[in-house]
Specification:
Helix content is about 25%, strand content about 35%. With about 250 residues, the protein is of the alpha+beta class. The chain has two domains: about 1-95, Ribosomal Protein L25, Chain P; about 100-185, Beta Complex (RNA Polymerase Alpha Subunit, Chain A, domain 2), CATH 2.170.120.20. The longest helix has 20 residues, at about 205-225.
Length: about 250
Protein backbone atom coordinates (compact mmCIF):
# COMPACT_ATOMS: atom_id res chain seq x y z
CA UNK A 1 0.00 0.00 0.00
CA UNK A 2 1.40 3.38 -1.03
CA UNK A 3 2.19 5.91 1.66
CA UNK A 4 1.63 9.63 1.28
CA UNK A 5 2.70 12.43 3.60
CA UNK A 6 0.93 15.77 3.91
CA UNK A 7 0.86 18.90 6.05
CA UNK A 8 -2.04 20.84 7.52
CA UNK A 9 -3.03 23.65 5.16
CA UNK A 10 -3.84 27.14 6.40
CA UNK A 11 -3.97 28.86 3.00
CA UNK A 12 -7.50 28.92 1.63
CA UNK A 13 -9.32 30.35 -1.37
CA UNK A 14 -7.23 32.49 -3.71
CA UNK A 15 -4.13 31.89 -1.58
CA UNK A 16 -4.01 28.34 -2.95
CA UNK A 17 -2.49 29.75 -6.13
CA UNK A 18 0.62 30.70 -4.18
CA UNK A 19 0.87 27.10 -2.93
CA UNK A 20 0.79 25.74 -6.46
CA UNK A 21 3.65 28.03 -7.47
CA UNK A 22 5.68 26.42 -4.69
CA UNK A 23 5.06 22.95 -6.11
CA UNK A 24 2.29 22.04 -3.65
CA UNK A 25 -1.25 20.75 -4.23
CA UNK A 26 -4.11 21.93 -1.98
CA UNK A 27 -6.28 19.03 -0.84
CA UNK A 28 -9.02 18.02 1.58
CA UNK A 29 -9.73 14.92 3.69
CA UNK A 30 -13.26 13.98 4.73
CA UNK A 31 -15.30 10.90 5.58
CA UNK A 32 -18.22 9.42 7.48
CA UNK A 33 -18.39 11.07 10.93
CA UNK A 34 -14.96 12.60 10.30
CA UNK A 35 -14.21 16.31 10.51
CA UNK A 36 -13.03 17.82 7.22
CA UNK A 37 -9.33 18.66 7.15
CA UNK A 38 -7.46 20.94 4.73
CA UNK A 39 -4.03 19.64 3.74
CA UNK A 40 -1.24 20.32 1.25
CA UNK A 41 0.79 17.76 -0.71
CA UNK A 42 4.09 17.71 -2.56
CA UNK A 43 3.00 17.81 -6.23
CA UNK A 44 5.66 15.52 -7.80
CA UNK A 45 5.20 12.88 -5.09
CA UNK A 46 1.40 12.81 -5.39
CA UNK A 47 1.50 12.81 -9.20
CA UNK A 48 3.65 9.66 -9.19
CA UNK A 49 1.48 7.87 -6.63
CA UNK A 50 -1.75 8.84 -8.37
CA UNK A 51 -0.54 7.53 -11.73
CA UNK A 52 0.08 4.14 -10.13
CA UNK A 53 -2.80 3.94 -7.67
CA UNK A 54 -5.57 5.83 -9.46
CA UNK A 55 -8.86 6.50 -7.70
CA UNK A 56 -9.62 3.01 -6.45
CA UNK A 57 -6.52 2.13 -4.44
CA UNK A 58 -6.11 2.48 -0.70
CA UNK A 59 -3.41 4.87 0.49
CA UNK A 60 -1.85 5.41 3.89
CA UNK A 61 -2.06 9.16 4.45
CA UNK A 62 -0.03 10.75 7.23
CA UNK A 63 -0.82 14.37 8.08
CA UNK A 64 1.95 16.13 10.04
CA UNK A 65 3.08 13.71 12.77
CA UNK A 66 -0.29 12.06 13.28
CA UNK A 67 -1.03 8.36 12.89
CA UNK A 68 -1.54 7.37 9.23
CA UNK A 69 -5.12 6.83 8.11
CA UNK A 70 -6.45 4.84 5.15
CA UNK A 71 -7.93 6.91 2.33
CA UNK A 72 -8.87 6.66 -1.32
CA UNK A 73 -8.64 9.44 -3.87
CA UNK A 74 -12.23 10.62 -4.21
CA UNK A 75 -11.79 13.35 -6.82
CA UNK A 76 -9.03 15.22 -8.63
CA UNK A 77 -9.34 18.56 -10.43
CA UNK A 78 -7.05 19.05 -13.44
CA UNK A 79 -5.81 22.03 -15.42
CA UNK A 80 -6.15 20.42 -18.84
CA UNK A 81 -4.10 23.11 -20.60
CA UNK A 82 -1.09 22.74 -18.30
CA UNK A 83 -1.72 19.06 -17.50
CA UNK A 84 -1.45 19.79 -13.79
CA UNK A 85 -3.47 18.68 -10.74
CA UNK A 86 -5.12 21.68 -9.12
CA UNK A 87 -6.84 20.05 -6.14
CA UNK A 88 -7.45 16.61 -4.63
CA UNK A 89 -10.14 15.20 -2.34
CA UNK A 90 -9.47 12.17 -0.14
CA UNK A 91 -12.12 10.01 1.50
CA UNK A 92 -11.06 8.50 4.82
CA UNK A 93 -12.47 5.00 5.04
CA UNK A 94 -13.48 2.71 7.89
CA UNK A 95 -12.43 -0.92 7.74
CA UNK A 96 -15.97 -2.12 8.53
CA UNK A 97 -17.77 0.20 6.12
CA UNK A 98 -18.45 -0.74 2.49
CA UNK A 99 -17.33 1.55 -0.31
CA UNK A 100 -19.05 2.33 -3.60
CA UNK A 101 -16.57 3.19 -6.34
CA UNK A 102 -16.30 3.18 -10.13
CA UNK A 103 -13.67 0.77 -11.41
CA UNK A 104 -12.13 0.55 -14.86
CA UNK A 105 -13.13 -2.14 -17.33
CA UNK A 106 -10.21 -3.71 -19.19
CA UNK A 107 -11.17 -5.46 -22.42
CA UNK A 108 -8.93 -8.47 -23.10
CA UNK A 109 -8.43 -11.05 -25.90
CA UNK A 110 -10.07 -10.85 -29.33
CA UNK A 111 -13.57 -11.32 -30.70
CA UNK A 112 -13.98 -13.82 -33.54
CA UNK A 113 -16.81 -11.76 -35.03
CA UNK A 114 -14.55 -8.71 -35.15
CA UNK A 115 -11.32 -10.35 -36.31
CA UNK A 116 -12.70 -12.77 -38.89
CA UNK A 117 -16.00 -11.23 -39.99
CA UNK A 118 -15.22 -7.48 -39.77
CA UNK A 119 -17.77 -6.92 -37.02
CA UNK A 120 -17.83 -3.63 -35.11
CA UNK A 121 -16.97 -3.77 -31.40
CA UNK A 122 -19.35 -1.48 -29.46
CA UNK A 123 -18.19 -0.58 -25.93
CA UNK A 124 -21.15 0.72 -23.93
CA UNK A 125 -19.22 1.18 -20.68
CA UNK A 126 -15.65 2.07 -19.72
CA UNK A 127 -16.21 1.85 -15.95
CA UNK A 128 -18.72 0.15 -13.66
CA UNK A 129 -19.77 0.82 -10.06
CA UNK A 130 -18.97 -1.78 -7.40
CA UNK A 131 -19.46 -2.04 -3.65
CA UNK A 132 -17.23 -3.86 -1.20
CA UNK A 133 -15.27 -3.56 2.02
CA UNK A 134 -11.98 -1.62 1.78
CA UNK A 135 -9.92 -4.80 2.15
CA UNK A 136 -11.63 -6.29 -0.94
CA UNK A 137 -11.30 -3.23 -3.16
CA UNK A 138 -10.19 -3.99 -6.74
CA UNK A 139 -8.63 -1.65 -9.32
CA UNK A 140 -10.21 -3.02 -12.50
CA UNK A 141 -12.41 -5.76 -13.95
CA UNK A 142 -11.29 -7.75 -16.98
CA UNK A 143 -13.85 -8.29 -19.75
CA UNK A 144 -13.05 -11.25 -22.00
CA UNK A 145 -14.44 -10.32 -25.42
CA UNK A 146 -13.53 -13.71 -26.93
CA UNK A 147 -17.05 -14.70 -25.89
CA UNK A 148 -18.38 -12.45 -28.67
CA UNK A 149 -18.38 -14.90 -31.58
CA UNK A 150 -21.38 -13.74 -33.63
CA UNK A 151 -23.05 -10.49 -34.67
CA UNK A 152 -25.44 -9.36 -31.97
CA UNK A 153 -23.61 -11.09 -29.12
CA UNK A 154 -23.60 -9.02 -25.92
CA UNK A 155 -21.72 -9.15 -22.62
CA UNK A 156 -23.90 -7.83 -19.79
CA UNK A 157 -23.02 -6.60 -16.31
CA UNK A 158 -24.24 -9.93 -14.91
CA UNK A 159 -21.59 -11.70 -17.04
CA UNK A 160 -18.64 -9.91 -15.43
CA UNK A 161 -16.50 -12.10 -13.21
CA UNK A 162 -15.80 -10.78 -9.70
CA UNK A 163 -15.39 -12.45 -6.32
CA UNK A 164 -18.39 -12.96 -4.04
CA UNK A 165 -17.02 -10.19 -1.85
CA UNK A 166 -17.54 -7.63 -4.61
CA UNK A 167 -21.02 -6.55 -5.65
CA UNK A 168 -21.69 -4.92 -9.02
CA UNK A 169 -24.16 -2.08 -8.50
CA UNK A 170 -25.26 -1.57 -12.11
CA UNK A 171 -28.37 -3.37 -13.35
CA UNK A 172 -27.56 -7.01 -14.30
CA UNK A 173 -29.01 -6.40 -17.77
CA UNK A 174 -26.80 -3.38 -18.49
CA UNK A 175 -24.93 -3.92 -21.77
CA UNK A 176 -21.16 -3.65 -21.37
CA UNK A 177 -19.87 -4.54 -24.84
CA UNK A 178 -21.36 -6.04 -28.01
CA UNK A 179 -20.61 -6.79 -31.66
CA UNK A 180 -22.57 -5.20 -34.50
CA UNK A 181 -22.61 -6.36 -38.11
CA UNK A 182 -20.56 -4.22 -40.52
CA UNK A 183 -22.48 -1.75 -42.70
CA UNK A 184 -23.45 -2.91 -46.18
CA UNK A 185 -22.12 -1.18 -49.30
CA UNK A 186 -25.54 0.40 -49.83
CA UNK A 187 -25.55 1.84 -46.30
CA UNK A 188 -22.02 3.22 -46.75
CA UNK A 189 -22.99 4.83 -50.07
CA UNK A 190 -26.02 6.43 -48.40
CA UNK A 191 -23.79 7.91 -45.67
CA UNK A 192 -21.37 9.31 -48.27
CA UNK A 193 -24.15 10.77 -50.44
CA UNK A 194 -24.26 14.58 -50.33
CA UNK A 195 -27.59 16.20 -49.36
CA UNK A 196 -27.82 17.99 -52.74
CA UNK A 197 -27.40 14.64 -54.52
CA UNK A 198 -30.36 13.09 -52.77
CA UNK A 199 -33.53 12.71 -54.81
CA UNK A 200 -36.27 15.21 -54.03
CA UNK A 201 -39.84 13.98 -53.43
CA UNK A 202 -42.17 14.07 -56.44
CA UNK A 203 -43.37 17.64 -57.12
CA UNK A 204 -40.75 19.22 -54.82
CA UNK A 205 -38.58 20.43 -57.76
CA UNK A 206 -41.52 22.25 -59.42
CA UNK A 207 -42.49 23.86 -56.11
CA UNK A 208 -38.88 25.02 -55.58
CA UNK A 209 -38.73 26.60 -59.06
CA UNK A 210 -42.06 28.35 -58.47
CA UNK A 211 -40.80 29.85 -55.20
CA UNK A 212 -37.64 31.12 -56.91
CA UNK A 213 -39.66 32.81 -59.71
CA UNK A 214 -42.05 34.41 -57.19
CA UNK A 215 -39.13 35.69 -55.13
CA UNK A 216 -37.47 37.25 -58.18
CA UNK A 217 -40.75 39.02 -59.10
CA UNK A 218 -41.10 40.48 -55.60
CA UNK A 219 -37.49 41.71 -55.65
CA UNK A 220 -38.08 43.49 -58.96
CA UNK A 221 -41.15 45.28 -57.62
CA UNK A 222 -39.32 46.41 -54.50
CA UNK A 223 -36.25 47.71 -56.34
CA UNK A 224 -37.94 49.50 -59.26
CA UNK A 225 -37.55 48.87 -62.96
CA UNK A 226 -33.80 49.64 -63.01
CA UNK A 227 -32.96 47.55 -59.97
CA UNK A 228 -32.25 50.62 -57.75
CA UNK A 229 -33.60 51.03 -54.26
CA UNK A 230 -36.93 52.98 -54.19
CA UNK A 231 -36.78 56.61 -53.25
CA UNK A 232 -37.62 57.44 -49.61
CA UNK A 233 -41.22 58.60 -49.09
CA UNK A 234 -43.03 60.83 -46.63
CA UNK A 235 -46.00 59.82 -44.49
CA UNK A 236 -48.40 60.36 -47.38
CA UNK A 237 -46.62 57.73 -49.42
CA UNK A 238 -45.22 60.26 -51.92
CA UNK A 239 -41.48 60.58 -52.64
CA UNK A 240 -39.80 63.03 -50.25
CA UNK A 241 -38.58 66.27 -51.90
CA UNK A 242 -35.42 68.15 -50.98
CA UNK A 243 -37.45 70.87 -49.29
CA UNK A 244 -39.18 68.27 -47.10
CA UNK A 245 -35.98 66.51 -46.07
CA UNK A 246 -33.70 69.56 -45.71
CA UNK A 247 -34.93 71.02 -42.43
CA UNK A 248 -32.15 69.34 -40.51
CA UNK A 249 -29.44 71.24 -42.37
CA UNK A 250 -31.28 74.48 -41.74
CA UNK A 251 -31.38 73.81 -38.02
CA UNK A 252 -27.58 73.21 -38.00
CA UNK A 253 -26.97 76.56 -39.60
CA UNK A 254 -29.16 78.25 -37.00
Amino acid sequence: MAQLKAKTRTSLGKKNQALRKKGLIPACVYGHKIKNQNIELDAPTFNNIFKQAGETSLLDLQVDDKKPVKVIVQEVDHDTLKDEILHADFYQIREDEKLSVDVELEFINQSKAVEEEAGVLVKSLDTIKIQCLPADLIHKIEVDISALENFGDVIYAKDLKVTEKVEIMDSPDTAVVSVAAPRSEKELEALEEKPEDAELPEGAEEAKEGEEEEGASEDKKASGPDGDAPAPSNDSGQPRTDSQGGSGAGEDKK
